[in-house]
Design a protein that fits this description.
- The complex is a heterodimer.
- Helix content of chain A is 77%, strand content 0%.
- Chain A has one domain.
- By secondary structure, chain A is mainly α.
- Chain B is mainly α.
- Chain B has one domain.
- Chain B is built from ten helices and no strands.
- Chain B is globular, with a radius of gyration of 21 Å.
- The chains are: A mainly alpha, B mainly alpha.
- The interface between A and B is large, with 109 and 101 residues.
- Chain B: Keywords: Membrane, Transmembrane, Transmembrane helix.
Chain lengths: 197, 176
């Protein structure tokens, strides 16, 4: 799937640029994209290193485990393949909480820790996403944001009479997306596992 | 309301940074050494994401710069007009899963041109707040542990994006 999407974007882009007579933008765009990729990863070093340190402290203090224990009924339903005391659970919960609070730059490192913990459980095919990873990403990309801070800031900037009036509609839309994401994840998990993919 | 929210996000991280080391210390953890031990993998994790991010961002960048994006939205907008979806929001809807920065740029532009309190302004605000950059998150998270086969993760991610979009339009039509 990702192979097809990737190839389609590259080929369509090149064909359209050629048809429009501005093929030279392709070269520029390709290098700019590569540069953004490297820059983003390098920028991540500082913040990931920092949050990994804090997370290790939280784990050593037993805080991550306590958080995971609190939401156990929910995580048991969502992630039946993860042992309830596994550190992956704590990291997943930390990542989703940061997402809910709209703390974007803290959510990413915690998500990466969660992936590393999930990968430790993924012995069968280490280059292929496990069921739990797919569920985690479905939750993550559709996660409820209680406080969409950035967009509220922009509304405020352009003199909205009521910048926060979109909080309610945002929660509704995101809850719909999340519910369906979980449902689709369940169905696809069943189909893929039946076919042994 | 806005002051409460901005105060909350101003305090959230400092409070976490105060409590975690303090509780760890009180529980007898060697705080400095443990922090360093955890931080050690940070560099490696970030470096590992480079090839994956480069691959994805090159494709997105070519797709956008070539005009293929506009072609796609131009192709879709007559269909959407028929079902009462304003075509102004289409570039945002298509860009949102691909690039967070670009989508925010489009949202800002729409809010600037139509006003934050117009129907389109409120709709695009809801869309921006309720969705995430699916492709970026998938590439980054899977890339960091070397997962190459995404299995069904893309499908469920895109279904979520599409549902969120449809739900945003419906709820905004009802509310505003």
């Amino acid at each position: 799937m990702v192979n097809i999407i990737w190839l389609a974007m590259v080929i369509l882009g090149i064909l359209v640029a050629g048809y429009n007579g501005n093929i030279e933008v392709v070269t520029k765009a390709a290098f700019e994209g590569a540069q953004t990729g490297v820059k983003t990863s390098l920028n991540l070093i500082a913040i990931i290193t920092f949050w990994l340190g804090i997370m290790k402290l939280a784990e050593a203090a037993g805080l991550v485990q306590a958080l995971a224990y609190l939401v156990r009924p929910l995580t048991r339903f969502l992630f039946p393949s993860i042992p309830p005391d596994h550190p992956a659970m704590g990291a997943i919960v930390m990542n989703l909480s940061a997402n809910i609070l709209g703390l974007g730059n803290a959510a990413t490192p915690m998500g990466l820790i969660a992936m590393q913990e999930l990968q430790k459980l993924n012995q069968r095919r280490p280059d292929s996403a496990s069921d739990a990873m797919c569920t985690f990403l479905a939750l993550n990309t559709s996660c409820i944001t209680l406080i969409p801070t950035t967009i509220i800031g922009i509304r405020l900037l352009y003199n909205s009479a009521n910048p926060t009036e979109i909080v309610g509609t945002t929660i509704f839309a995101t809850a719909c997306g999340m519910t369906l994401a979980i449902a689709v994840d369940r169905v696809l998990r069943f189909i893929y596992n039946q076919q042994g993919r | 309301m806005y002051t409460i929210i901005s105060e909350l996000s101003r305090w959230a991280i400092p409070v976490v940074l105060l409590l975690i080391p303090l509780i760890a210390f009180l529980r007898g953890v060697k705080v400095f050494e443990t922090f360093v031990e955890g931080a050690e993998q940070g560099f490696h994790t970030a470096i590992k994401t480079i090839p994956f991010l480069v691959a994805m961002l090159v494709a997105i960048s070519i797709f956008r710069a070539s005009g293929a994006m506009e072609l796609l939205t131009g192709f879709l907008s007559p269909v959407l007009d028929k079902v009462g979806i304003p075509s102004e929001i289409l570039p945002h809807a298509v860009m949102r899963p691909l690039s967070g920065g670009a989508a925010l740029g489009i949202a800002t532009d729409i809010i600037k041109n139509h006003g934050p309190d117009s129907f389109i302004g409120r709709l695009v605000s809801t869309m921006q707040g309720s969705s995430d950059t699916t492709f970026f998150v998938l590439t980054l998270y899977f890339g960091s542990v070397g997962i190459k086969k995404y299995r069904y993760a893309i499908i469920s991610g895109l279904v979520a994006d599409f549902t969120t979009l449809a739900a945003s339009i419906i709820i905004c039509k009802i509310m505003f």
